[in-house]
Amino acid sequence: MTKILVTGGTGFLGGALVRRLQNMPVSITVVGRNRSVGEVLTQQGVRFIQADLADRAAMERACRNQDIVFHCGALSAPWGRRADFYSANLIGTQNVIHGCFTHKIKRLIHVSTPAIYFNYQNRLNVAEYDRLPAKPVNAYAETKRLAEQAINRAYQHGLPVITLRPRAIFGPGDQAIFPRLIRAIKSGRLRIIGGGQAQTDLTYIENVVSALLLAQTSPPETLGRAYNITNGQPVSMWHMITQICQRLGYPPPRRHVPFRVAYYGAGLLETAHHIFMPHREPMVTRYGVGLLGRTITLDIRAAQRDLGYQPRVSMADGLEHFLTWWVKNQNLLQESQTQPVET
Fold first, then answer.
1. How many whole angstroms separate alpha carbon 52 and alpha carbon 284?
2. Does domain 2-237+289-328 correspond to CATH entry 3.40.50.720?
3. pTM of the entire structure?
4. What band does 278 get if pLDDT is binned at 50, 70 and 90?
5. Which of 37, 50, 276, 332 is 20 to 30 A from 60 in CA distance terms?
6. What contacts 246, CB < 8 A, 6 or more positions away?
7. Residue 204 is among the residues annotated as catalytic for this protein
8. pLDDT bracket for residue 331 (50, 70, 90)
């Protein structure tokens, strides 16, 4: 029986991967920090290790007797201390690499990010081999780029590894992309950045899981390579936001703000937060302005050709799946706030 280790297995992507793996004849070990999720997994027959990616000894022990490692664990956020991103994303990846070398893992599937492509300019059909920006846009992009460099060095020294760069993962259970957007919509503070013409790629969670599983058994010539993963259906950012507003009953944003005004305003806000409240995320960041006001789409032909990747869940269906889950989740939350609590 194939033995599989999933780092970040109590998170959004890692958790979805674990649920799919549970339907397969494999032995699963999960590394994560969420003890309550880990206890549920243990009850379901999954081996759970509560550990931090930065714990080198723990990562080495986790890799012992494993065949395949899916490295999904990372710190992904638009704001935070560089030291935290460095520890989770670079040191964590180096520790996973060390564990894989020590225990002769058959294949490591590393989850990276297209954030390394972003430079606040409109970019269409970005391919994996296109030139990267001279300066990463934030600490997340910087440390994930450094992690990829560590992965590439490991491959050159004989580690069988393949890298995926999934773009903007969403779906039921998402606590980052759409929830942030919905909170901004609900507050009434969201403004249309620039002319409202920005196009973007997103990726439904189950499509990313399918790509991960394909990478587990892809041909040897795919090793050492990185692959873009998206839904392959670029969407108008502000048309999608209007759809979300209509579905949830919120008035869509009407007011426009020029991109440069929004960008520099966010920069001033970031500076103030760095000085006075560094642990609190600003209401808006330059990165967030860039995502809403600039076009970036990715070329996924390499993944389709080499991995056999085909997105099975469309953008329309994926968005509906998320919104259905979101509405149900909010209703349950409201009920819990109005019902007496049993102790």
1. 29
2. yes
3. 0.93
4. confident
5. 37
6. 252
7. no
8. low
